[in-house]
Amino acid sequence: MFNTKPQSMAKILLVNRSPQNLAVALVRSGGHEPIEVLSFKHGLEVARDLPYDSIVVAEYKNSDGEAPEFMENLEKSGIHHRVIVHSDKCGYTEWNRVHRYKSFATYLQTAALDQTLLESIDLYLPGLRNRELLPGNLFQQHGEVADKIMCELGKVAPLDVNVTVSGESGLGKERIAKAVHERSARNRMPMSFVRHADMEIDPYCQTSCGECFLEKCFRENQGGTLALIDLPHFCRKGQAVLLNKMHDPECNVRLIATADKNLMKRKVEAGDFNSNLWFELSEGMIEIPPLRDCPDNIEWLAKKLLEHFCAKHNRPQLIITSDALMVLKAFAWPGNVMQLNTFLVRKASKCDSGVIDADDVLDLIEVEEVRHGESQLDRFVRVLKTSPSVTIAAKRLGKSVRTIYNWMKSYGVNSKGIPIANKSLQPSL
Q: Which residue range or ranges hold the Sigma-54 factor interaction domain (predicted)?
């Protein structure tokens, strides 16, 4: 379980060319009260008097110089605050100049600042380090999917009913739960996240299944929100405590649960989960579709995740080619956004050229089985249409490239699965 943000004596100094700056708005939206200056010279003077372990956020270019010279002056003056530099450029030159001071400097891209600045501040500001980060942005969905989720969220968040966020693993259900709290009338009150495992390891609780742990959670979040993560995993004793607290007239806590709907249904049908508790927790329901049902979302999402990775790790922006994106779209992603992010981080970490191409993601490809109700010929055409090259189609079908060309000739289709004039597709392979 973790609670709201703790306070720190350290300060945040903003060095910007204009007070109407995105960084200023973002820092204030994070609940901080920054000190603002408009030049590196003034910033150096103010930095001398800041408490130890404060943070300096600076634009790469300012009216009186550039950030690398400013950091050099900080170092010469014996000022050891963490510096976060942001720039609208993402070239190797700017990155390398800042990277010289990597022991105390971080480089962020202005284009991704809304996703990375507060996360970096949370990482380096004393009292916030090492806590579990839970960004409020919902970048795991896009387009019609995101519009539907936000519409459902906008309807249930203000109603003060108990809510279940339903979806498979790897979809960021906890972020949606946090967004519900932030858009409710309770948003100025505490919010905590609790898992069944937290009750089992609580060293101060001697009762079975951490009954007193749950009691403590309700006390600490009175007037606020308690998020129950992975609801189907709560044992019968924990379910009974939750149901009792929900019926306690003195308990003023909103509950938001996250659950895999299919697993939840099986648990209820098997009698392993209290159906009354499930009904009461699902007064409001927000469902997140799996990534395989949103293939058009993958391109935007892959670019966004790579942008987030590069900004977080001070790397120049990586480019992912259209052929590589076709391979990603052809994969089912059983682990959803979490699996996609892990895969892209692994590839980005090893990329030296600045470009991720189809060849870089070939290890993702597995031999595809025939889908339900699909003929072998339908499978062949589908794979050709969704593969950037014949080589990749061959790997997906578990055949040699030569065999694929022979099939294309025999069944009258080109490399994109489109029938060739005056030829008709054969009924089977």
A: 139-349
